[in-house]
Design a protein that fits this description.
This protein is mainly beta and about 220 residues long. Among the domains are: about 35 residues, no CATH class; about 100 residues, 4-oxalocrotonate tautomerase-like (Immunoglobulin-like), CATH 2.60.40.1680. It has no helices and 16 strands. The strands form six sheets. The protein has a five-stranded antiparallel sheet, with no helix packed on it. It has a three-stranded antiparallel sheet with strand order 10-15-14, with no helix packed on it. It has a two-stranded antiparallel sheet with strand order 1-2. The protein starts with a strand and ends with a strand.
Length: about 220
């Protein structure tokens, strides 16, 4: 909704207005004062410095019929340096924990969870586990994320296990707590711990038996 401008009991809510105050009265001007120092000084190819705004619509005609070109209304979007599109007026980020950093005219966006964010966490699948030794089954950058909620599934024919775990670190030690877990068999198939491995906080599984197993994890991180 456009900003509301009030003068005594008179108000305007017609998009963006430029008002010209003269003495005790005022009047509406036909030009919009975004990115301009004088509203009656129009944007033109030779006067294009006035386009230094976030969202702009510009249309200028010369007497010979030529006009200002290559002016896009809206925001351009890039992903990993690749142009996604231009002309967007609204960005809606789904999920919590996303972070934003302004770098000049660019906003760098970090989606919570690294490879996936809140509301859409990506899966990591570790195949062919045949040992009872601890094996890494997922990780996150320790300097960026302090903790995570983990959903972990184990498949070891003919049984299956699913559990929800809390994972937190202090920079040197990783603590993993089981919130809830269930198995289709009479015993649990594996247990989970964590370590600091280089720059990452890593989740480990220790299988109860050495049969071939597949572990799938979803790690939903929380920033430091």
């Amino acid at each position: 909704m456009a900003a509301e401008i009030r003068v005594d009991t008179i108000k305007s809510r017609s998009g963006i207005n430029t008002l010209n105050f003269t003495g005790d009265g005022f009047s509406f001007l036909t030009n919009v004062g975004i990115g301009t120092t004088i509203t009656t000084d129009p944007v033109s190819p030779s006067n294009n410095a006035k386009l230094a705004v976030g969202i702009v619509t510009a249309n200028y005609y010369y007497g010979d019929g030529s006009q200002l070109s290559n002016v896009i209304s809206g925001v351009g979007i890039q992903s990993a340096g690749t142009l996604v599109g231009t002309g967007f007026t609204t960005l809606n980020f789904i999920g919590a924990g996303n972070t934003f950093a302004v770098n000049g005219t660019t906003v760098d966006i970090s989606i919570s969870g690294g490879g996936g964010g809140g509301g859409g966490v990506s899966e990591t699948k570790t195949l062919g586990i045949t040992t009872t030794d601890a094996v890494g089954v997922g990780s996150f950058v320790a300097a960026t994320y302090r903790s995570a909620v983990v959903v972990a599934q184990i498949a070891q024919d003919p049984d299956y296990q699913i559990g929800r775990y809390l994972m937190v670190h202090d920079g040197s030690t990783v603590t993993v707590i089981e919130q809830a877990a269930a198995s289709t068999g009479s015993t649990m198939l594996g247990s989970f711990t964590g370590i600091i491995n280089g720059t990452d906080a890593e989740l480990l599984v220790s299988m109860a038996t050495a049969g071939i197993a597949t572990v799938t994890t979803k790690i939903d991180t929380v920033t430091v």
